[in-house]
Amino acid sequence: MPETAADYDYLIVGAGPAGCLLANRLSADPANRVLLLEAGGPDNYPWIHIPVGYLYCIGNPRTDWCFDTEAVPGLHGRALKYPRGRVLGGSSSINGMIYMRGQAGDYDGWAAAGNPGWAWRDLLPLFRRMEDHYAGDSELHGAGGEWRVERQRLSWAILDAFRDAAAQSGIPSVEDFNGGDNAGCGYFQVNQQRGVRWNASKAFLRPIMGRTNLTVLTGVEAQRLLLEDGRAAGLLVDWQGARRELRARREVILCAGSIGSPTLLQRSGIGPRALLERLGIGVRHALPGVGGNLQDHLQLRMIYRISGAPTLNHIANSLWGKLGMGAEYLLRRSGPLSMAPSQLGAFAKSDPGQARANLQYHVQPLSLERFGEPLHRFPAFTASVCDLRPHSRGSVTIRSAEARDKPLIQPNYLSDPRDLQVAADAIRLTRRIVTAPALARFQPQEFKPGPDYQSEADLQRAAGEIGTTIFHPAGTCRMGTDGDAVVDSRLRVHGILGLRIADASIMPSLTSGNSCSPVLVIAERAAQMILADAARRAELSAVEQPHAAPAGTA
User: Fold this and answer.
1) N or C: which end of the chain has fewer CB within 10 A?
2) Which ranges of 333-416 would DSSP assign to H, the alpha helix?
3) Which residues are catalytic?
4) Where in this chain does the record put each Glucose-methanol-choline oxidoreductase N-terminal domain (predicted)?
5) What is the CATH number of domain 153-187+298-387+412-472?
6) pLDDT, averaged in runs of 10, over the chain (554 residues)
């Protein structure tokens, strides 16, 4: 690392999905010198690339920040593990690999709230640009881009039956969730290449590592921004046991995610005045919305014991089953080791009054008490269902001015009564699907939460008992025009020059589905705006330059 980064035009904090894509797009012009910083290490851990290896990446400090939430009242005082990727590729190196854009109405809602340029029609061409879709180029999908999208390489009889039961319950079967209206039930498309995880590092970073104008550094943790005359001039970072200053000529771009970006702002004196004063940091710029508006998808993990169909519970609890899984993956890159954590999905309305699908199912041919524990020894499937657009809001705040101190994360799940109502309706809908004729031959019996939960109060209590995160935090540096917004529609931090944020934290509201690909489209849009603004500044600078005097004149 150089003693100063005066040679760099752009400093990018975080080499997750957004940071990898931005580094790619900004360094495409050889005139731009780009420095990409990642707190974690390289993505050379073998379990990153074997799809089922997420089991060994989540909760592993080699690849995960290993955050925890505070005790959540709506979950009866339970605290949750809160995984976020800490490695090249970020959370795309440890996530469920599900390719999901969300609904057109999500983005149209952003635009209608005063954020021009963020409607579905604006972003669909960008989704298509980055895609390399298995079905080739079409009106909805792209081919030849960096972000590989494939079909899954296996199916299960119990999941096929669930899909048929969903159709019998009014949720039709679909082949593609990514046309703008994801209502229906079908197998998820995944970010894999021939049975191997396809993360953002492989897609956007590795192919360009030879660019001489791009520097990628791992093991670098950003302490705070360097602010000079109302401008982000650079960063103070920890690297190889020392603190160093890095400087940028044009912009600092935060891609540290919904936890990392607001906490870096807060450590820099940008955030709620009361918090900064209480911690003795000093207020460099008061922005009350920094760290607020935390949203996440809470999944209710309903488990059903079955008979008459294989599930991963039986296979994984057998030595011969494990050997068979390994052999199938080695020989054909298929079978259970190629599985995304969830294979079958469904999008539905919790009640007919909903304008569009507000529930998402992740259905799995397995069951366990909680993540990280062994699979049950009886055959079972899990139907996890989440409220796609929760009303509950939480917060992320620092505990001190030191980056090494993990932040206080309070999601406040189920704190809004409307979310409790949706949760109860979601459990009732799941029970209707499971009792449909298509599943009858497997004799499903509800194991979690259990048939004793029947009244409205029972179901709401059950939601707090079985609810857990599905790892989609967003919104903590919200885009908008009101006093609590943190960035404007061009992702510039309000009141600070030379500083942008491009990650899930800028979402005004959560997208209706898995969040990795929406983060990539945020970064794609950010790259467009950053390059356009740089070109505009260059034009203005050229116009403002005094005309040179003719040769030979005084």
Assistant:
1) C
2) none
3) 472
4) 85-108, 257-271
5) 3.30.410.40
6) 65 98 98 97 96 90 97 97 97 97 98 97 98 96 98 91 98 97 96 96 97 97 96 95 94 98 98 97 96 98 95 77 76 78 95 96 91 85 97 98 95 98 98 98 97 96 96 97 97 98 98 98 98 88 64 40
